[in-house]
Specification:
Strand content: under 5%
Low-confidence stretches: 1-31, 190-198, 397-410, 490-501
Order of helices and strands: HHHHHHHHHHHHHHHHHHHHHHHHH
Number of strands: 0
Distance between the termini: 116 Å
Shape: elongated
Largest sheet: none
Helix content: 55-70%
Length: 538
Amino acid sequence: MAQRLHPRGRARPTERSRPRGSKRARRDAPSGAGCLRAWAEENDGLVSGWRASRSSGPGRAAQQAARRCRLAFDSLLRKIQGLPAALPSLSLELTVLYNSLLFAVSESDGLVEGEAERISHGLIRVLEACGVSGQDLSTEELWQKVLQDVTMEELCVPLHRLGALQGAVWLAANCLGSVTGLFRLLSDTKGLEPSAPQEENELLALLQSWSVPVEEDTSPLVVQSTKELKETLWTSAAFLQGLQGLEAGNLPAALSLLQAAATGFCSKRILAQIYTCIGCCSQRMGKPQTALQHLKRAVQVDSQCLSALSHAASLYHQLGETDAELEALTLLYKALETPTQEAVYIDPCMLIRTELLVHTPALASLFSRCHPSEVKYQLAQRCLQAGRCLHVLLRVQLVSAASIQSSEETPADALPEAKVLQKIRLLALLGRGSQFQELGRDKEALMNFQHGLQVCPGDPAATSHLLQVLWKLNRRQEAAALWQKLHAGAAPADSQQEAPGRPYPLYLASCLQHVNVPCDEAVVKNMQDYLRTSGQDQ
């Protein structure tokens, strides 16, 4: 009969192997060599089948195969756990539990509460097989008791493997303290050695120094190795703590952790996110050029990392680099308009990956997806503010004409998108005309104001600007006719006053206030005098 071992691997000298009633019955309850062999073959067959399905790559086929494997492993685990816990079957049971949980966590998208309970149940069965009660213990207490009291050599590999998965579950729940405590136990240490640098991150040091037990050739197969899981845990822990430091404003520590995460094992998508976070951190530290370098690297690694483009555009705006800002916004808009598949997929080669383990408010905020209309309006606003880049503005309008939102997607109190863009184009023309006026180029200003009235017929702002430049150019009769039309006609059909409850965007409203200026009082008086003397006053 197997003996209870001391944590250092030696038999307790004061213990003797003797019958202990019901506890011995549980310990020696045989599942039968035949059942164990059949269960092991079923486990290995499922793992081999999953490995063969990797050739299909990520996508729906992989999702369907993963779901089938999860159901099959769950069924096998119910067979094993349907009998009392027994030492001969514990190693296989823990392996099947590990394989089953890998698929469950990969499908959960980080929501792992149920999986944590299944791990606790497995630990309780380990203690039961050894004649020790595990009831009423927390998960942390269960791990401490199992790793300190149940140290049979044949359980070392499956327990360390399950411990790595427990660390993944706790990381996904942002329980860094629990993860650190667990890996102190797995590494058989109370913390860092005194000679270790004080600035070294304890969790990363523990994960780095954790020695993964070597699996024997005869061990049951697993769908993801403990070594791969260890590397994923290290990268995820560095990334998660870096994000938390960024959120807390501890920028030097955040930068160090994010730079460490960038050297770890992860997908291109996560690496691009890490570079984006480094860029944002560098920007907050007053290093804009360093920030831009990392934002560019993010886009180079993953062209779909649109948040990097958005942050780069914002940084270019702060630096006053208008052309680069407009280029970044244009690329962002085109990318948002391109259909992409956003479904979460199963990676056949890596079930547990960083995407599933890192969830923080800072990450959600930094990588929130912009709506194409939001970027389009921002692009138009920048054009208005940056010298009236009409060629860009016209291109935006032409793109939008084919992609106006359906009525189901448009809020009831929102103006039609085409009307907003029409007003944006008008403002650009009025702004450019005003600039020409300031330079004394009245004829060019006149052309822009006339074009503005073509875009929005009867608009009072365009009419007012046109009236003043006509009078200045001594084109009195045209000015008088326009004046009479302005005062005799009804309010413009597209004026803001006729659309109560349907306001323009805030940035556009401020621009409207800027251009909606009344005619110069001197011009008004001169106009009235001219109409009286010419007999045209009505």
